[in-house]
Design a protein that fits this description.
The protein is of the alpha+beta class. The protein is built from 8 helices and 5 strands; from the N terminus they run E-H-H-E-H-H-E-E-E-H-H-H-H. The protein has 2 domains: 84 residues, Arc Repressor Mutant, subunit A, CATH 1.10.10; 77 residues, no CATH class. A hairpin with a 2-residue loop joins strand 3 and strand 4. Helix 3 crosses helix 4.
Length: 223
């Protein structure tokens, strides 16, 4: 069972968005039968079986075991992942393309980059899982408060310079790769110098404001 699975197939995405099936996937974080699920989601077992067959057909649940109960064979299933994301590939014809944007300060470009990251990392996770290998990734997440827009702009500029220096220091753009072009690969699909290309994305955006309860705000005004 994966921690997160990225759904690329449009039909699987549609199946997962059904509210009842979403609830079933949530419950199947732990193995369960149609009878057990029926009691949890408040539906007849026959209807639960219908939804389970659809989810299994799209590869979102998998059989764990079959066990005999009298004259009946009970199937125990489990979700293929604890959580799911839908890849932009599921909307391929209208998926955002980062190459369409040239403004590095555009929120739409940031979204396009995020969409591409979901798509690429999803494929990499699936490949690593199939090969029973660990995928090497790294991420930093944090919050920073700027007093002014000028401070934010200065930070972005300094961050860009620092990242560029690190890229220049560690990027393996040797003569073989340089002469063959930036996307050159060997017949085996590996970069010309034997190194592995990595995607580097650095993003900065405002944090969502926490909704304020009107009553709480009024009470605070009276304090």
């Amino acid at each position: 069972m994966l921690d997160i699975e990225v759904i690329e197939d449009p039909a699987a995405a549609e199946a997962s968005l059904d509210p009842i099936r979403t609830r079933i996937l949530q419950e199947l974080a732990q193995p369960g039968s149609a009878t057990q699920l029926a009691a949890k989601v408040g539906l007849p077992r026959q209807k639960v079986n219908y939804h389970l067959k659809a989810l299994e057909r799209h590869g979102l649940v998998e059989l764990v075991e079959e066990r005999r109960k009298g004259n009946v064979t009970e199937r125990v299933l489990q979700a293929t992942a604890a959580s799911y994301l839908i890849s932009p590939v599921a909307l391929a014809s209208v998926a955002p393309d980062p190459h369409r944007f040239s403004d590095h300060f555009s929120a739409f470009w940031l979204l396009a980059l995020a969409g591409r990251m979901v798509q690429e990392v999803g494929k990499l996770i699936a490949g690593a899982a199939a090969a029973r290998q660990k995928l090497a990734t790294f991420a930093i997440d944090g919050e920073i408060t700027f007093r002014t827009a000028a401070d934010r702009a200065a930070f972005a500029e300094e961050l860009g310079v620092a990242v560029t220096r690190l890229v220049d220091k560690y990027h393996d753009g040797g003569t073989a790769a340089a002469s063959a072009g930036p996307d050159a690969t060997s017949s085996g699909g590996t970069p010309a110098r034997g190194g592995r290309k990595h995607r580097l994305v650095v993003a900065l955006h405002p944090v969502l404001k926490t909704p304020i309860n009107p009553l709480t705000a009024k009470e605070q005004d009276n304090d």
